[in-house]
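ASSEMBLY PREDICTION REQUEST
Request ID: AP-0331
Submitted by: J.K., bench scientist
Number of chains: two
Total residues: 635
Priority: normal
Notes: Please return the full assembly, not individual chains.
Input sequences:
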Amino acid sequence: MTGTLGIYTNDVTGVFQRSVIQGAREVVERAGLGVAVTELAERVEDAHEAAALTDGTLGSLVITNVLGDAVLAALAATGHPVTLVSHRAHELGVPTVMHDNRQGMRQLVEHLVAVGRSRFVYVGGRTDQLDGRERERFFREELMRHSLSVPPERFLVGDFEPALAAEAVSGLVRDQRGFDAVVAADYLMAIAVIQALRAEGVAVPEEVSVVGFGDGPEAQAAGLTVVSADVVELGRRSARQLLAQVRGERLRGYTVIRAGLIVRDS
Amino acid sequence: MEQLRRHNRHLVLRAIYSGAAESRAELAVVTGLTKPTVSNLVGELLADGLIRERGPGRSSESGGKRPTLLSFEPRARQVIGVSVVGNRALGVLSDLAGETSALHVRELAPGEDPTAADGAVVSDVVAGLVPQLDAPLLGIGAGLPGSGSGAPLAAALRRRFGVNVHLGNQAELSALGQLAFADGVEQDGTLVNLIVDGGIEMGVGLAGGAVHYGSDLAELTWPAGQAGDTLRGRFAWSSLKPRVEQALGGEPTTTAHEAEPPWHSYLRLKDAAVRGNTAADALIDELARDLAPVVAWLVASVRPTQVSLGGRLSDLGEAFLDRLRRHAAAHVPVEQLDAVTLSLAYSDQLGAMGAVALVVQAELELLSS
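STATUS: Completed
Returned structure:
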């Protein structure tokens, strides 16, 4: 087989997006196919653009929600193979590969409870993205399971932007200190949170434990405790699903990649 | 001859897997096979990747040659296990030791029958996991609701994926899955797994999973002798949902961005009770009181070492188990009840893990005692 697979993203320089592309590229190129990355500054919503966008490719890997439902439906209708990464549109019958947000959040909260933490702060991701919504929902479920409560002012908006997460945590520390753990919806925000806390004179992990979702070299360098949802691996797994479709498999449903807890020094 | 060879091969593999033997010499002693036979079989297992040589051990007291130590290699094969939970089919991709690397979920369409002869639903789940394989596929297992033979379904899967397929009852496999792989389960004991998830299913596993069976209790009339009310009627989510909602009353929803799926409402009920909602507390107590005779009956008849509560109801947590025990004490002698551990299995993957255990057991004869 020869040809090219398209990868669509909102930002080729973002760490998450870059890592997914790196992993996908490895797998696709090993299969003897080419990769064409398209950066879309705005989400494409017009179904008429679907054909032009994917013209000349054997299949498409779509990172999060950069193609709207109408576009995905139009692609599905023509039989063009599509795999969604960390996004779901199961009513359209488009398969997905994503991390196990439920199991991951469960492990993070269980770890913090096991080391004696009970007064949590949550730094959320973008709520227009599935990972952002699911991680917050499963965090809230784990709170209930452990009979813990977190007041509304300790749910901070981070939007998967480390700078925003750092600013929100700094603001909280100046206002009140009565928390002993921070759970961040991704590891890049968690690293920024550690720096912000230390800048405010809060000792990590002595006074406050910080954990994050997902893993990469940055988390390892920062000594961050995480669930090892490796983003490059997510890219590899997504490409495997897409290749299966390109070879003629008709896939339905979503694949969830398991993640294990990695306890480091945070 | 081939059958005998296969049997001997399994004997050798099982001895290494269980740690009963670590070298060729020990294998000859433990299995009673001759040393040349053991050496041959070890060679085959090494070539298949199921075992590996992990270096020299200590020499024997008589000062002989240091033996090469052998280890089981759980990642040499992978297994796909599938079960149906509520309105979705869920598959796990696992190694031989129960470590999972991926799940695949496929929602059921309204009215779709996951046990249909073409095996379409289970097939979709398996097809979703095949691209994620990191080792050869040993076999496919599936736990299905009800007690049909599933032979046509198994045949359809075998044709499509080219490996052996093993089917079982879902509740039975949940018990097997816990015995084989779960932490905190006494492997030599007798485990009863009670799945309360709309209906009520019971799975029993004995001594390390060598014997397992399951049945559906949903149509049992309950309380005994009272016409018209069945366990399904009592615990069906459709009849409980309005009462849970009523108990939660004006409580704010717990998810900020999505409609609350029914799965999590027991969790919310538990949460409300912890916060002092007396209506929620009373409803939890009533559920414990209604389920207690079933638990008492299981304890008295099966004499298990452990009763594990799975399904949605397990979200009610440890406090619910305490109440269940208290109410069950009204139906069964306390010393019988005291001999039993009550536990929660709040995973929706137990059935699928049991299906994995079924395949490992059938194909490699590893888990049976």
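REVIEWER COMMENTS: DSSP finds 13 helices and twelve strands in chain B.
SIGN-OFF: pending second reviewer
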